[in-house]
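no rush on this but wanted to send it before i forget. theres a chain ive been looking at and ive put its sequence and its fold in C-alpha coordinate form underneath. please have a look and point out which stretches look like helix strand or loop to you. thanks a lot i owe you, the record is right below:
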Amino acid sequence: MNNLSLHSNYEGPNSVTIGDGSGLAITHMGSTHFSTPFTVFNLKNVLCVPKVSHNLISVAKFSQQNNVYIEFHPFSFSVKDLKTGATLMCGPTSGDLYTLQPSLHTPPINLHASRSTNTLWHARLGHPSPKTLHQALKTFLPSSSHIFSTTCNSCFLNKSHKLPFHESSIKTSTPFELIFSDVWGPSPITSVNGYHCYLIFVDHFTRYSRLYPLKQKNRSCHNLSSIPKNC
Protein backbone atom coordinates (compact mmCIF):
# COMPACT_ATOMS: atom_id res chain seq x y z
CA MET A 1 0.00 0.00 0.00
CA ASN A 2 2.91 2.36 0.60
CA ASN A 3 3.78 2.17 -3.10
CA LEU A 4 0.40 3.58 -4.20
CA SER A 5 0.04 7.37 -4.31
CA LEU A 6 -3.71 7.13 -5.01
CA HIS A 7 -5.82 4.09 -4.19
CA SER A 8 -9.31 2.87 -3.44
CA ASN A 9 -10.89 -0.36 -2.26
CA TYR A 10 -11.28 -3.01 -4.94
CA GLU A 11 -14.78 -4.47 -5.09
CA GLY A 12 -14.59 -6.44 -8.34
CA PRO A 13 -14.81 -10.23 -8.72
CA ASN A 14 -11.37 -10.74 -10.28
CA SER A 15 -8.26 -12.17 -8.66
CA VAL A 16 -4.62 -12.62 -9.67
CA THR A 17 -3.92 -16.16 -10.90
CA ILE A 18 -0.45 -17.56 -10.13
CA GLY A 19 1.50 -20.51 -11.51
CA ASP A 20 -0.23 -23.27 -9.52
CA GLY A 21 -3.66 -22.11 -10.75
CA SER A 22 -4.83 -20.57 -7.50
CA GLY A 23 -6.14 -17.01 -7.26
CA LEU A 24 -4.90 -14.29 -4.92
CA ALA A 25 -7.34 -11.69 -3.65
CA ILE A 26 -7.09 -8.04 -4.73
CA THR A 27 -7.72 -5.58 -1.88
CA HIS A 28 -7.06 -2.18 -3.47
CA MET A 29 -6.57 -0.51 -6.83
CA GLY A 30 -4.66 2.68 -7.53
CA SER A 31 -1.82 4.40 -9.34
CA THR A 32 1.80 5.28 -8.71
CA HIS A 33 4.91 6.59 -10.46
CA PHE A 34 8.65 6.27 -10.20
CA SER A 35 11.44 8.38 -11.62
CA THR A 36 14.91 8.09 -13.08
CA PRO A 37 17.41 10.88 -13.83
CA PHE A 38 15.88 11.03 -17.32
CA THR A 39 12.09 10.79 -16.96
CA VAL A 40 9.08 9.84 -14.83
CA PHE A 41 7.15 6.62 -15.44
CA ASN A 42 3.48 6.44 -14.55
CA LEU A 43 1.67 3.24 -13.59
CA LYS A 44 -2.12 3.19 -13.74
CA ASN A 45 -4.62 0.56 -12.61
CA VAL A 46 -2.15 -0.94 -10.16
CA LEU A 47 -3.58 -3.84 -8.15
CA CYS A 48 -2.67 -4.31 -4.50
CA VAL A 49 -2.36 -8.05 -3.75
CA PRO A 50 -0.97 -8.51 -0.20
CA LYS A 51 -0.09 -12.20 -0.67
CA VAL A 52 2.18 -11.59 -3.69
CA SER A 53 5.83 -11.80 -2.60
CA HIS A 54 7.18 -9.52 -5.38
CA ASN A 55 6.01 -6.39 -7.11
CA LEU A 56 5.20 -7.33 -10.70
CA ILE A 57 4.85 -5.05 -13.74
CA SER A 58 3.13 -5.96 -16.98
CA VAL A 59 5.55 -5.24 -19.82
CA ALA A 60 2.70 -4.55 -22.26
CA LYS A 61 0.84 -2.15 -19.93
CA PHE A 62 4.05 -0.39 -18.90
CA SER A 63 5.06 0.16 -22.54
CA GLN A 64 1.61 1.38 -23.60
CA GLN A 65 1.14 3.80 -20.70
CA ASN A 66 4.61 5.40 -21.01
CA ASN A 67 5.15 5.27 -24.79
CA VAL A 68 8.36 3.23 -24.47
CA TYR A 69 9.76 -0.13 -25.56
CA ILE A 70 11.99 -2.53 -23.67
CA GLU A 71 15.04 -4.41 -24.93
CA PHE A 72 15.93 -7.60 -23.08
CA HIS A 73 19.56 -8.77 -23.16
CA PRO A 74 21.17 -11.85 -21.56
CA PHE A 75 22.36 -9.98 -18.48
CA SER A 76 20.55 -6.64 -18.63
CA PHE A 77 17.63 -4.73 -20.06
CA SER A 78 16.97 -1.15 -21.16
CA VAL A 79 13.86 1.01 -21.44
CA LYS A 80 13.89 3.34 -24.48
CA ASP A 81 11.74 6.19 -25.73
CA LEU A 82 9.49 5.00 -28.54
CA LYS A 83 9.96 8.14 -30.69
CA THR A 84 13.62 9.06 -30.20
CA GLY A 85 15.15 5.74 -29.15
CA ALA A 86 16.86 7.47 -26.20
CA THR A 87 17.68 5.18 -23.28
CA LEU A 88 15.62 6.19 -20.25
CA MET A 89 16.49 3.42 -17.82
CA CYS A 90 18.73 0.36 -17.58
CA GLY A 91 18.92 -2.52 -15.16
CA PRO A 92 20.61 -5.88 -14.57
CA THR A 93 19.18 -9.36 -14.25
CA SER A 94 18.69 -11.01 -10.87
CA GLY A 95 18.83 -14.73 -11.40
CA ASP A 96 16.22 -15.44 -14.04
CA LEU A 97 14.34 -12.18 -13.47
CA TYR A 98 14.73 -8.66 -14.81
CA THR A 99 14.44 -6.34 -11.83
CA LEU A 100 13.62 -2.63 -11.61
CA GLN A 101 15.17 -0.59 -8.83
CA PRO A 102 13.60 2.87 -9.28
CA SER A 103 13.20 5.65 -6.77
CA LEU A 104 9.51 5.87 -5.92
CA HIS A 105 7.84 9.30 -5.72
CA THR A 106 11.10 11.17 -6.37
CA PRO A 107 10.94 14.29 -8.58
CA PRO A 108 12.79 13.97 -11.88
CA ILE A 109 16.18 15.59 -12.42
CA ASN A 110 16.34 18.01 -15.35
CA LEU A 111 13.39 16.26 -16.98
CA HIS A 112 12.87 18.82 -19.76
CA ALA A 113 16.56 18.86 -20.75
CA SER A 114 17.70 15.31 -20.22
CA ARG A 115 15.08 13.76 -22.48
CA SER A 116 16.88 15.26 -25.48
CA THR A 117 19.57 13.11 -26.99
CA ASN A 118 23.13 14.37 -27.34
CA THR A 119 22.73 14.34 -31.12
CA LEU A 120 19.83 16.79 -30.77
CA TRP A 121 21.88 19.02 -28.45
CA HIS A 122 24.70 18.90 -31.02
CA ALA A 123 22.30 20.36 -33.61
CA ARG A 124 20.78 22.91 -31.21
CA LEU A 125 24.18 24.27 -30.20
CA GLY A 126 25.29 24.87 -33.77
CA HIS A 127 27.13 21.59 -34.49
CA PRO A 128 30.13 22.03 -32.17
CA SER A 129 33.00 19.55 -32.01
CA PRO A 130 32.56 16.45 -29.81
CA LYS A 131 35.00 17.89 -27.25
CA THR A 132 33.05 21.17 -26.97
CA LEU A 133 29.70 19.38 -26.79
CA HIS A 134 30.99 17.03 -24.09
CA GLN A 135 32.20 19.95 -21.99
CA ALA A 136 28.91 21.84 -22.40
CA LEU A 137 26.78 18.86 -21.39
CA LYS A 138 29.09 18.05 -18.50
CA THR A 139 28.79 21.63 -17.20
CA PHE A 140 25.10 22.37 -17.72
CA LEU A 141 23.54 18.86 -17.81
CA PRO A 142 25.56 16.77 -15.34
CA SER A 143 22.89 14.06 -15.25
CA SER A 144 22.91 13.42 -19.01
CA SER A 145 24.86 10.72 -20.79
CA HIS A 146 28.06 12.02 -22.38
CA ILE A 147 28.25 9.55 -25.28
CA PHE A 148 28.18 11.36 -28.61
CA SER A 149 28.08 9.82 -32.06
CA THR A 150 30.32 11.57 -34.59
CA THR A 151 28.18 10.51 -37.56
CA CYS A 152 26.67 13.92 -38.35
CA ASN A 153 25.94 14.32 -42.05
CA SER A 154 25.63 18.11 -41.78
CA CYS A 155 29.13 18.33 -40.30
CA PHE A 156 30.54 16.08 -42.99
CA LEU A 157 29.04 18.24 -45.75
CA ASN A 158 29.73 21.71 -44.33
CA LYS A 159 33.02 21.23 -42.49
CA SER A 160 34.92 19.51 -45.26
CA HIS A 161 38.28 21.06 -46.20
CA LYS A 162 40.24 21.21 -49.42
CA LEU A 163 43.52 19.36 -49.66
CA PRO A 164 46.58 21.62 -49.16
CA PHE A 165 48.47 22.82 -52.22
CA HIS A 166 51.75 21.11 -52.97
CA GLU A 167 54.90 23.13 -52.46
CA SER A 168 55.84 24.99 -55.62
CA SER A 169 59.01 23.99 -57.46
CA ILE A 170 59.57 27.59 -58.62
CA LYS A 171 62.13 29.44 -56.48
CA THR A 172 63.16 33.11 -56.61
CA SER A 173 65.74 34.97 -54.56
CA THR A 174 65.28 38.62 -55.57
CA PRO A 175 62.40 40.94 -56.54
CA PHE A 176 61.44 41.16 -60.23
CA GLU A 177 63.20 37.88 -60.95
CA LEU A 178 59.88 36.36 -61.99
CA ILE A 179 56.71 38.32 -62.83
CA PHE A 180 53.26 36.85 -63.41
CA SER A 181 50.81 38.83 -65.54
CA ASP A 182 47.20 38.45 -66.55
CA VAL A 183 44.58 40.44 -68.48
CA TRP A 184 40.97 40.32 -67.39
CA GLY A 185 38.01 41.63 -69.34
CA PRO A 186 36.00 42.96 -70.88
CA SER A 187 33.96 43.74 -67.79
CA PRO A 188 30.17 43.77 -68.21
CA ILE A 189 30.13 47.03 -66.24
CA THR A 190 32.23 50.02 -67.28
CA SER A 191 34.15 51.76 -64.48
CA VAL A 192 33.61 55.42 -63.59
CA ASN A 193 36.58 56.44 -65.76
CA GLY A 194 35.49 54.31 -68.70
CA TYR A 195 37.73 51.25 -68.21
CA HIS A 196 36.63 47.82 -69.40
CA CYS A 197 39.71 45.60 -68.86
CA TYR A 198 42.41 45.20 -66.24
CA LEU A 199 46.04 44.15 -66.39
CA ILE A 200 47.71 42.75 -63.26
CA PHE A 201 51.38 42.04 -62.48
CA VAL A 202 52.44 39.90 -59.48
CA ASP A 203 56.03 39.66 -58.30
CA HIS A 204 56.78 36.08 -57.27
CA PHE A 205 59.38 36.95 -54.65
CA THR A 206 57.58 39.76 -52.77
CA ARG A 207 53.99 38.82 -53.77
CA TYR A 208 53.54 42.52 -54.52
CA SER A 209 50.73 43.12 -57.00
CA ARG A 210 50.08 46.05 -59.29
CA LEU A 211 46.91 46.55 -61.33
CA TYR A 212 46.42 48.77 -64.39
CA PRO A 213 42.96 49.56 -65.78
CA LEU A 214 42.63 49.38 -69.56
CA LYS A 215 40.15 51.05 -71.86
CA GLN A 216 38.53 48.74 -74.36
CA LYS A 217 39.66 49.55 -77.91
CA ASN A 218 37.87 48.21 -80.98
CA ARG A 219 35.85 45.87 -78.71
CA SER A 220 38.96 43.90 -77.80
CA CYS A 221 41.23 43.85 -74.77
CA HIS A 222 44.00 42.01 -76.56
CA ASN A 223 45.38 45.28 -77.90
CA LEU A 224 47.76 46.26 -75.10
CA SER A 225 48.81 49.58 -76.66
CA SER A 226 46.99 51.36 -73.84
CA ILE A 227 49.26 49.92 -71.14
CA PRO A 228 51.00 52.76 -69.26
CA LYS A 229 54.57 53.30 -70.39
CA ASN A 230 56.03 52.98 -66.86
CA CYS A 231 54.90 49.37 -66.46
User: Anything to note?
Assistant: The longest strand covers residues 40-48. The radius of gyration is 37 Å. The chain has a mean pLDDT of 77. The chain has three domains: 6-112, 116-158, 179-226.
